[in-house]
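// run 5 | inverse folding | seed 20
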């Protein structure tokens, strides 16, 4: 299948199974399909993410592993600003499935700890600094507002993950979630 499959855009892969797409990716990334410099990899990640959210969770997990692979590929090829957007998309996809299937420690998609670690490692401010900034949002510089907005985007994933799921939250993470509504 994949050795003769001609793919010019992500939708050309829409009719195939995760295993067939995974095989095509192996050929593509192995250079066996020639140069694919104009291929819309972001479109492929979006198509796969849509599969995750539009199929039953037991089937969606296979699409999620595949989407994670494409996200990881993209993360190695884009600017820092684009990386944040890709990571938000990837983490929201993970949170969606964790809500449906539960936390599976050490799983590359279903581990809550990986999302929490991503959040913590991305922090550029300490909690007291954020509290101080939120007390005077109208006096902040635009750069500081952007930093707080990035923080809120990341916190939104954790809010989605923890709201009404019964997943345990440590006290420090509870503090962060508690300021979500105060962020711009």
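// decoded
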């Amino acid at each position: 299948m994949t050795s003769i499959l001609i793919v010019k855009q992500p939708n050309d892969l829409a009719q195939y199974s995760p295993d067939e797409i995974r095989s095509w990716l192996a050929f593509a990334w192995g250079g066996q399909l020639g140069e694919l410099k104009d291929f819309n990899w972001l479109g492929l990640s979006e198509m796969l993410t849509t599969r995750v959210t539009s199929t039953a969770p037991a089937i969606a997990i296979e699409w999620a592993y595949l989407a994670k692979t494409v996200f990881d590929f993209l993360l190695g090829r884009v600017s820092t600003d684009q990386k944040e957007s890709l990571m938000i998309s990837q983490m929201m996809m993970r949170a969606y499935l964790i809500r449906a299937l539960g936390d599976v420690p050490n799983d590359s998609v279903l581990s809550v700890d990986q999302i929490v670690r991503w959040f913590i490692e991305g922090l550029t401010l300490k909690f007291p600094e954020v509290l101080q900034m939120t007390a005077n949002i109208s006096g902040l510089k635009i750069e500081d507002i952007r930093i707080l907005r990035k923080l809120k985007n990341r916190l939104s994933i954790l809010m989605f993950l923890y709201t009404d799921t019964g997943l345990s939250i440590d006290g420090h993470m509870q503090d962060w979630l508690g300021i979500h509504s105060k962020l711009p």
